[in-house]
Amino acid sequence: MKKRVFKYRAVGITLFIVQVLILLLFAEGSYISYEEFSISEGFSLQNFVLVFSVAIFITALISLFSLGFRGKKSILLLNINYAILFSFFVYGYLKNVIQESEAPEDIVSFSIIFLVIIALFFIANFFKQKRIEFFEIDEIGTQNLN
C-alpha cells in the first residue's frame, strides 16, 4: 500500500503546484529584499519584510520536499507555511491601514489573497488522508468493561 498524504491525487498535485509558485515568488521577493537590506538602519519595516519573505521561502521549500516525499508531517508543514503567509499579508494590510493609503483596489486584492489562503488551508486539512490505527484486532466484537 502506497503512502498517501491526501485522499485524492488532484488535491496533492494542486497543492504541490501552488507550493512551487509560492516558493518561486518568495525566492524572488527574498532576493529583492536582501538587495535593499541595510544594517545601518537597525530595525526597519523593510528588514521585517526580509525576515517574513525568507521564512515563507524556507517553509515553502520544506513543505514542498515533504509533499514530494509524502512525509508524515506534510499537513503540519503546509499549515505552518499558510499561517506565516497569512500573517505576512495581514502585516501588509495593517501597514496600508496605518499609512492611510487604502485604495479600493487594495481592499479587493487583500480580500482575494485572504480568501485564497483560507481556501488552501481548508483544502489541505479537509482532504488529508486519515490514519487508520489497528489496536487490538483480537478484541473486535468483545465488550470493553472499563
Task: Give a summary of the structure in a few sentences.
It contains 4 helices and no strands.
Secondary structure elements and pairings:
Blueprint: H1 9-35, H2 45-68, H3 74-98, H4 104-126
Helix pairs in contact: 1-2, 2-3, 3-4
Tell me what you see in this structure.
- By secondary structure, this protein is an all-alpha fold.
- It has one domain.
- 68% of the residues lie in helices and 0% in strands.
- It is elongated and about 70 Å long.
- The two termini are 34 Å apart.
Name its key features.
single chain; elongated
Number of helices: 4
| Count of discrete structural domains | 1
- Order of helical and strand elements: HHHH
Low-confidence stretches: none
Q: Strand fraction band?
A: under 5%
